[in-house]
Amino acid sequence: MAKPAVIVVGADKGGVGKTTVSRTVLDYFTANNIPTRAFDTESPRGTLKRFHPEVTEIVDVTTTSDQMKIFDTLNTATANVTVIDVRAGLMSPTLAALRDIGFLDAARSGQITFAVFHILGPSIASLDEIAETASFMDGAKYFLVKNFINNTSFFEWDQATYNSYFKRIKNATEITIPKLNEMAYEQVEVSSVPFLKFVANKGPNDETANYSFVLRGYVRHWLGNVWGEFDRIKLTDIVGSKDKGFARADED
User: Fold this and answer.
1) Of 63, 146, 153, 219, which has the fewest CB atoms closer than 10 Å, so is most exposed?
2) Could you tell me if 178 and 152 are in contact, meaning their C-beta atoms sit under 8 angstroms apart?
3) How far apart are CA 53 and CA 147, in angstroms?
4) Where are the domains of the chain?
5) With 50 as the cut, is the pLDDT of residue 108 above it?
6) What is the CA radius of gyration of the chain?
7) Are 200 and 161 a contacting pair, CB within 8 Å?
8) pTM over 0.70
């Protein structure tokens, strides 16, 4: 049996599209036939669970009991891959808790595969998070994600400032999430289904839907580009599975 893999998606700054990235990761693993479970730490409401209710549980990651729900079950869960969508403001505290319970030591020794998708905003405050987060990254796969879903601009006025922050991090990999057509994004939000189901014209219960052909096309193209980035970093290899499942979003 492959060792457990944990992927943390988060940032200390809000409004940078963390849950959108988590949704694309879950769709990617679904398309590659990799069993995955998810934890939504936006307690008690939860956003990720609205789109992926079958595999997502809402938790309060600041409590010991809910930390146990996640990490005491890594070796017994049916799904080998665990995705944790960390709400705004909890990235650093969550990583500190992982250090305190010995999780980071286990990742460093190779008992657990650990990856962090750090979603960045275009501000200096967001980039300042990198230095703090990096101190926890020994033994982890660290991905710095420039997410353009909110049409942000990443220091186009001062590329030197941007590059100076990235150079501080050893072995970090940059990922770019392109912008999705706004109307298409809004329609997926209203439909409350995974991007993959929207593309397939399926409703929440797999019934045939009546989504716009044009908007489905925009989502298909965008999702294919996002998954191209995941292919580039060999995400399926990182979590220990190369099985290919049903058709990709960029395939007809």
Assistant:
1) 153
2) no
3) 24
4) 5-180
5) yes
6) 18
7) no
8) yes
